[in-house]
Design brief:
- The structure holds two protein chains of two kinds.
- By secondary structure, chain A is mainly alpha-helical.
- Helix content of chain A is about 65%, strand content about 0%.
- Chain B has three domains: about 160 residues, Uridine Diphospho-n-acetylenolpyruvylglucosamine Reductase, domain 2, CATH 3.30.43.10; about 120 residues, Uridine Diphospho-n-acetylenolpyruvylglucosamine Reductase, domain 3 (2-Layer Sandwich); about 120 residues, Vanillyl-alcohol Oxidase, Chain A, domain 3 (3-Layer(aba) Sandwich).
- In chain B, α12 runs antiparallel to α13.
- The longest helix of chain B is centred in the C-terminal third of the chain and has 20 residues.
- The two termini of chain B are about 25 Å apart.
């Protein structure tokens, strides 16, 4: 019993940290990604994903994005999407975006 | 990654350590992986050795750090290539003209120092994007309207320095520049205009100060590093309205453009527009294809007849109006009266938007940039498989005759070169009293196709110059070609630029090759 309680006590801060990292990632995502990958008209990333058959085309609605895919897209770019420099999206910010997209 | 030309590996390591001492180790990037992030995402040299690559990047956070960096660069003869937000896509992105340059990345300098909605201006640092500025004005509830270029992730400083354009009454961005702070190659800090006055009260309200007006020499140039800039904004207009005017015949374009010119130069039509031909949308019609395929091509009467039978005009132009709700309808009525001199002219009321637009209105708009809202919507025009684009963009007279001549001359060149994948936007009005053409080439991940495209690009620049049409701005790859085309009196203007370069930057550390301006010791490399 004691061990179980200790386990929960240790996990709670970890979960809370993951939650706050995802929250931070949400804000970073909205700044850097939403203008192209958001919902509605005039979102060329969403339109391109739809043209390539991605379902759903809005990244925030996807459940199959793994960290490697996200990191590769941000650092290498895809088609007309350019790569992003570390002065724009730092490694820590990129990790937060990954946390956000994985945490939903 | 390459070393800066003429710099030893040992000295370069010394330089990097000194840069780290200035900005901190985390803001000096020298691994292959980090430096690769600065390559041009829309490079016409995809997978070719000519694709320019930096040697490293350094990202300062303030003017004093930049002063220290240029002093180190002078000592070791390190070329520094400056970017603001680094999103100058189609013109080189964040890549240097000269491989081995150290990227001076100003993205961290992203402070909005002031937005004033009584005199309507902003004072910003280079790393501030149009998105940032818009968010700031929204959060503060400021009564200003922003003219953004098509992609909103660019910066007011960078776009203005490259003399970019937007869509609204303040679309000629250089004309909105009011005062700048510049770090010179020797580390000296200069403030232009009224900023030269200690305790200046009107740095962003009056452009000229006293004496020679030097702001222009820091645009499309490599004479200094701009660290602050004032840009004028518009008081929020009450509304935007678009009215469309259409004419039935080919030659109607001549009085149509003359009328457009009158209305634009009278500040009645106040936004970017362009000439549209109904033939563009009909390009795949079998009858039109057959007409154009016959020997000698389609005649003007045949094309007019083709369109008349489809009940389509030959030409149309969307006229944007901005202003008070009482005034805009009167402007449209006046425009219609002026165009009514053209036989068969037709008018159609288009979109009306209250400003600032409500969230509900924005949700219905494919591209909100003309409504003063920065966006990335323009990238939809490239298509989902695009790897980017570059553009030949000559400035021509604002006349119907110029449209006919440009289309005929350039169409002939492209056909001779076997190029058929060019998207043409004829005759835009980004800048007053002139037309701006856009011949768009897609970047391919195919070396041979890119070589062919670059040859066509250079040929269009050359042919344009032979006809008196010059590029307004260009990609890194063509800067020498364009600079050499401005050759009046044995390249007197370029020689003046070089004189200024030698005086202001004798070691040639600032952005070598920008706009065809090379330091003295590199001039033999000029194409």
């Amino acid at each position: 019993m004691m061990r179980t309680c200790l386990g929960i006590a240790l996990l709670l801060p970890v979960a809370a940290t993951a939650q706050s990292e995802a929250e931070r990632g949400r804000a970073i995502y909205q700044k850097w990604c939403t203008p192209c990958h958001g919902t509605g008209l005039g979102k060329p990333g969403t339109a391109a994903a739809a043209a390539h058959g991605a379902k759903p085309a809005v990244l925030e609605q996807r459940t199959d994005l793994n960290p490697k895919v996200i990191e590769t897209a941000v650092r290498n770019g895809i088609n007309f999407m350019p790569r992003f420099r570390k002065t724009e999206i730092s490694n820590a910010d990129l990790a937060a975006i990954v946390a956000y997209l994985a945490h939903k | 990654m390459p070393l800066p030309p003429g710099v030893s590996a040992k000295d370069f390591q010394t330089v990097l350590r000194q840069f780290e001492g200035v900005v901190g180790a985390e803001w000096v990037f020298s691994s292959d992986e980090e430096v690769a992030l600065y390559r041009d995402a829309y490079s016409p040299f995809w997978n070719e050795p000519e694709d320019p690559v930096p040697s490293a990047a350094v990202a300062p956070d303030g003017v004093e750090q930049i002063q220290q960096i240029v002093r180190i660069a002078n000592k070791y003869k390190i070329p520094l290539w400056t970017v603001s937000t680094g999103k100058n896509l189609a013109y080189g992105g964040s890549a240097p003209r000269l491989s081995g340059s150290v990227l001076l990345d100003l993205k961290r300098m992203n402070r909005i120092l002031e937005v004033n909605d009584r005199n309507h201006y902003a004072l910003v640092e280079p790393g501030v994007s149009y998105f940032d500025l818009y968010r700031y004005t929204q959060e503060k509830g400021l009564n200003v309207f922003i003219d953004a270029p098509d992609p909103g992730w660019g910066s007011p400083v960078g776009n203005t320095l490259d003399r970019g354009g937007g869509h609204t009454p303040l679309r000629d961005h250089f004309s909105t520049l009011c005062g700048m702070e510049v770090v010179l190659a020797n580390g000296d800090v200069v403030r232009t205009g009224m900023g030269a006055l200690p305790n200046a009260r009107t740095w962003q309200q009056y452009k000229y100060g006293f004496g020679p007006y030097v702001d222009g020499i820091f645009t499309q140039s490599n004479f200094g590093i701009v660290t602050k800039m004032g840009v004028w904004l518009l008081p929020m207009p009450e509304m935007r309205f678009v009215g469309t005017v259409s004419v039935p015949k080919h030659d109607d374009l001549i009085p149509m453009v003359d009328t457009l010119s009158y209305l634009m130069n009278s500040n009645i039509v106040q936004g970017t527009t362009r000439v549209n031909s109904s033939l563009t949308a009909q390009a795949r019609d079998p009858e039109l294809i057959a007409l154009r395929s016959k020997p000698g091509g389609a005649s003007v009467p045949e094309l007019e007849d083709f369109l008349r039978r489809k009940n389509l005009p030959y030409w149309s132009i969307d006229l944007p109006f901005y202003g008070p709700t009482e005034v805009v309808p009167a402007q449209w009525a006046f425009a219609k009266r002026k165009f009514s001199a053209i036989g068969g002219v037709q008018f159609r009321d288009g979109a009306t938007n209250k400003l600032p637009p409500s969230p509900e209105d924005l949700a219905k708009v494919a591209n909100p940039v003309p409504l003063g809202v920065p966006s990335l919507a323009i990238f939809s025009a490239l298509g989902p498989n695009s790897h980017g684009h570059i553009d030949v963009s000559p400035i021509t007279p604002m006349t119907g005759q110029a449209v006919f001549e440009v289309m005929e001359v350039f169409d002939k060149v492209l056909k001779e070169m076997g190029i058929d994948n060019v998207g043409v936007v004829p005759a835009g009005t980004y800048y007053p009293r002139s037309f701006f053409f856009l011949f768009t080439f897609q970047i391919e991940h195919d070396v041979e196709k890119n070589r062919k495209m670059r040859a066509a690009f250079k040929r269009l620049v050359q042919v344009g110059a032979e006809h008196g049409w010059g590029e307004y701005r260009t990609h890194l790859a063509f800067m020498d070609d364009v600079a050499n085309a401005y050759s009046f009196n044995n390249h007197a203007l370029l020689r003046l630029h070089e004189t200024l370069k030698d005086a202001l930057d004798p070691n040639g550390i600032l952005s070598p090759g920008k706009s065809g301006i090379w330091p003295k010791h590199m001039r033999k490399a000029r194409a």
